[in-house]
Amino acid sequence: MPSPYRALFAEPGTKAFSAAGFLGRMPLSMMGIGVVTMISQLTGRYGLAGALSATIALSAAVLGPQVSRLVDRHGQRRVLRPATLVALAAGAGLLLTAHFAWPDWVLFVCSAGIGAVPSLGAMIRARWAALYRGTPQLHTAYSFESVVDEVCFIFGPIISIGLSTAWFPEAGPLLAACFLAAGVFWLTAQGATEPEPHPRGQHGGGSALRSPGLRVLVATFVATGAIFGAVDVVTVAFADERGHKSAASLVLALYAAGSCAAGAVFGLLRFTGAPERRWLLGVTAMAVSMIPLLLVGNLPLLAVALFVAGLAIAPTMITTMSLIEEHVPRARLTEGMTWVSTGLAVGVALGSSAAGWVIDAAGARAGYGVPAVSGAVAVVVGFLGYRRLRKPAAGRGGTVEQHSEREERHLA
């Protein structure tokens, strides 16, 4: 591991909370696809399987920011454990209902309950921010966490699908629930690195979304999430049309691998300019990288194109976290990070639905028009909101170098 990453773990407790966060985040990529695999095997109803997966995603989009807001006020330990118990109870209900063929409405109720699962990525990033706020190490920490996210998305679906198909249908979601329980309870046992809560009286009511800059980030990442959701669905259909459906998982893994590699390198770099410029450049690069997908005609070329497209993802996400640091008051930092994840989740649901409709109407190759259009929308929203991103929240300004540059721009 390069020295900047080694230096991250010089602080006591960092290795432990990072490991717990990795374990607790595995369900993020395992649960949805695990439910689809389980339901399709037990019932053969792919429509029901997709609807349940969408219910979990949308429920998490609604409940996730509320859980994180409570965490900001009361602390991780007091909130994460009850929220996780709710999600685990709902998950157990889902497995039992599927196994014993109980009514469909019970499946949907349990799927909605799983949405109470906490955003472990936001919790870990909040711990890094508490340790390294205002230092170059925070950029490296956010880069490391983006790499961890991509590793989860590379291996999580493979583990979940493999267990459910090779062992028994409920195995994938069951292991995801075990990972969640172990990760959350291990993390919340580590009180020394837990960020201090900010009771309601310290920052008043209201949501982190009151920040104009955060609203720009969330709106942009709805469109970005649509890119991800559409690419997943269209790639599976593209491989299926060419008689190699099983190869879709490998092609999509290369998409995540490109992001993983770029994130690792990005964390080694040091920047002194304003992060909103890098962010807008990253969003634009993500959009442009979708254009070659419209031109590819075979899986090898598609794999190369997706790997290259993945190179823009992690750097953009890392810079987004830096911008949240500037535009969200410290007392609402966890909630702010979760709102970006919520925007992505909503976008994934919209993108996958739109892509499915286009595929049915015009074929898989035409389906890549959905992520291309989504990328264009993301760029437009980013440009329209750029002025808001240049105005950090009161009392926030990023690093000393960024603050000085902002003063120079203001005087100019």
Automatic annotation (TrEMBL):
It is found in: Cell membrane. Residues 213-412 form the Major facilitator superfamily (MFS) profile domain. InterPro entries: MFS, MFS_dom, MFS_trans_sf. Keywords: Membrane, Transmembrane, Transmembrane helix. The chain crosses the membrane at residues 20-40, 46-67, 79-99, 105-126, 214-238, 250-272, 279-296, 302-324, 336-359, 365-386. It holds the Pfam family MFS_1. It is a multi-pass membrane protein. Coiled coil: none annotated. Its main location: membrane. This is MFS transporter. It comes from Streptomyces pyxinicus. The lineage of its organism: Bacteria, Bacillati, Actinomycetota, Actinomycetes, Kitasatosporales.
